Amino acid sequence: MGDVTRDNLLAGSGVELERTFGLVASDTRIDILRALWDVRVSDEDGASFSELRERVGVSDGGRFNYHLGKLVPEFVRKRDERYELTHAGAKLIGDAVSGTYTETAETSVRPAVVGDCHMSGCDGNTTVEYRDGELRFGCDTCDRIPDGIPVPPIVVESTDADDVPAVGSRFSMLTVERANRGFCHLCDGPITQTVARFHPDFEPVLDGSVDVIHECRACGEWRRSGARSALIGHPVTVSLLYDAGVDYREIPHWEQTWLSEATERLVGEDPVRVAVTAPIGGAEHRFILDGSLDVVDRE
């Protein structure tokens, strides 16, 4: 496949995006996708041409065949004379159901206090609100920069207002774990994790933390975090927490003191080594991370 880079993947992407969006720029084609989605969730073995045309309600067979043909093979596949959605077709409908493209501006949750601010020297409260498709964590006292975490509207709309912060936090932890496993939350491309001090385009800016840049080599999306985020979902911390009677999946991240009270320090440059010390189960655990944020030792 060769080296995956943003430049070689985005080369000519404008033309490809225009063509792809053009494939679904028709009410009839959207209706076809919706009909095949109904077939999929009904666990039916696809739909024949005539069955699908009846579901969509198009009387002109030639016109229907034209629009159906435009969706094959990207969004619809034909197998044994029956039609079904491809993964891309199902994903398109799933994204529509999530409200990402249609309901982001309309869905919001007013700011609520969820706990103490963990910034050094601040006795304020951590606040959370949902706006413009993001769950935003900030402080009602200090000048902490709000953390914006993308959360689809469906997550918020299917949750009681009082539970939105906790449910949104669980979703955000999945986003972090996804990056830790090397996948971009936007395009599914490969993620590279680099200590900011050794990145050619970034400088460390976080106080009391070792900045890490999580960068997608395909689409260019990036985010910054402390090195401790590499421990979220890692088997060594999951097992330590579980042995201490803690199921980290059920606890909002602002209550996960093993993260908020962790300390980070650069302890080696060649090779790069970062020490993260976190309190778990009444003991201090020291984790050594390499330049790619993999755990290479525990003390």
What does this structure look like?
- By secondary structure, this protein is of the alpha+beta class.
- It folds into 2 domains: 6-98, Winged helix-like DNA-binding domain superfamily/Winged helix DNA-binding domain (Arc Repressor Mutant, subunit A, Orthogonal Bundle); 182-298, no CATH class.
- Helix content is 32%, strand content 26%.
- The protein has 10 helices and 13 strands.
- It has a 4-stranded antiparallel beta sheet, covered by helices on one side.
- A hairpin with a 2-residue loop joins β10 (263-269) and β11 (272-280).
- It starts with 5 loop residues before the first helix and ends with a strand.
- The model has no long low-confidence stretch (mean pLDDT 85).
Task: Outline the secondary-structure elements.
Layout: H1 6-10, H2 13-23, H3 27-41, H4 49-56, H5 61-71, E1 76-79, E2 82-85, H6 87-98, E3 109-116, E4 125-131, E5 134-139, E6 147-150, H7 153-157, H8 164-180, E7 191-195, E8 211-216, E9 222-226, H9 235-243, H10 257-260, E10 263-269, E11 272-280, E12 283-290, E13 295-298
Antiparallel strand pairs: 1-2, 3-4, 4-5, 5-6, 7-8, 8-9, 10-11, 11-12, 12-13
Helix pairs in contact: 3-4
